[in-house]
Amino acid sequence: MRTPMHTETDPEGARHDLRHHGDAEVRDDGAALVDLAVNVRAGTPPDWLRSRIADSLTGLAAYPDGRRARAAVAARHGLPVDRVLLTAGAAEAFVLLARALKVRRPAVVHPQFTEPEAALRDAGHTVDRVLLRAEDGFRLDPAAVPEDADLVVVGNPTNPTSVLHPAASIARLARPGRMLVVDEAFMDAVPGEREALAGRTDVPGLVVLRSLTKTWGLAGLRIGYVLAAPETIADLERAQPLWPVSTPALAAAEACVSPLALAEAADAADRVAADRAHLVAGLKEFAPDGLTVAEPAEGPFVLVRVPRATAVRRHLRTLGFAVRRGDTFPGLGEEWLRLAVRDRTTVNHFLQALDRALTLADR
Questions:
Q1: Measured over all CA atoms, what is the biggest interatomic distance in the chain, rounded to whole angstroms?
Q2: Residue 151 domain-assigned?
């Protein structure tokens, strides 16, 4: 018999710093560290994208006009324009959802990106947490979500577990009168974007969030978008300030959904998958030290459980590597670390440092 997932209501958000993100691991002395804490693809943005963004700077005297970028995103997903809203990164979309939608009982499936819950709490909501279990492989059981939840948030693939939930399982969460928010910020890093719900119009209450900052290295530019029913888009748009997305970000959005960019992203996803396999294989060599990998990993990052993880993370910093602590994610403890996937050379150097860090932590 399946062990049921745990659901908890925690009005204070106790024990977890929901505002801690990977950039905090490299903010002060990041120049001296190899960054495995932030999930932005290394070596980005590419030169052609930098050029497109630079060209947009000649138009900064005019107010931003998002019509072309919005139409381009709509075309990329085969949707009408009124089903698309451009946002200043996916983080803005979470704030808009929390403030603009009239919900009574929101539920967030954890472990996952913590900004959705933080935004809901800031908007005055009490949040139910559905905690997925490591012993179940952090897999989603739709029956574990409270039946009367009228807004459900789930990531796919999920940050930080790297689990890719079947689209059919997520779609089973849809109900009349419920908003089903699926964070697909890392879906373009999955080869073929299998299990994507972006572009679907047959799932009632579906809201899909996408980010262009991860694959294209645009975290500092802030660009993402929402796909949803026209009435939901209209509600969110009314909650936005005027001109919320800058002209350079609009230029980037239009460029990143072009056919050539999509082909480049698909190639990058294949490389990430190969590099991730190399990283996972190397991590498994440390099984005698008690290290375990959450599998199967499908995103551009890997979640690991390691004894004395706090000490290991500290020693890794002294050896030149920043990794993401896991204890700020509800459902995880301080024995968890998240590692961004990097190229094989970087991974090999990291694995050598990890060997040393584990030895030092044992002393």
A1: 64
A2: yes
Helices (H), the chain: 47-56, 67-77, 89-100, 115-122, 167-171, 213-216, 230-239, 247-256, 259-284, 309-318, 344-362
Q: Which pLDDT score is estimated for 29?
A: 61
- Cα 77 to chain center, whole Å? 19
Determine the Cα–Cα distance for residues 325 and 353; give it in Å rounded to an integer: 17
From CA 118, how far away is CA 300, in angstroms rounded?
24
Contact between 117 and 249 under an 8 Å Cβ cutoff? The reply is no
- Does residue 4 surpass a pLDDT of 90? no
* Residue at 2 is within a domain: no
Length of the chain in terms of residues written: 363
What would the two tokens of residue 320 be? 């030149």
Closest-CA residue to 249 (of 217, 215, 214, 224): 224
Q: What are phi and psi of 255, to 5 degrees?
A: -70, -40
235 and 301 share a domain? no
Separation of alpha carbons 16 and 19, rounded Å? 9
Judge if pTM exceeds 0.90. Answer: yes
Shared domain for 57 and 203, answered yes or no, is yes
Percent of the chain with pLDDT over 90: 90
Over residues 332-348, the pLDDT tens digits come to: 999 999 999 999 999 99
**In sequence order, what DSSP letters do the residues of 111-159 get, joined into one string?**
SS-SHHHHHHHHTT---EEEE--GGGTT---GGGS-TT-SEEEEESSPT
Compute the distance between CA of residue 158 and CA of residue 98 in angstroms, rounded to an integer. Answer: 20
What is the CATH classification number for the domain harbouring 65? 3.40.640.10
Tens digit of each residue's pLDDT (9 = 90 or more) over 228-242: 999 999 999 999 999
3-class SS of residue 348: helix
Q: Which domain holds residue 329?
A: 13-43+262-362
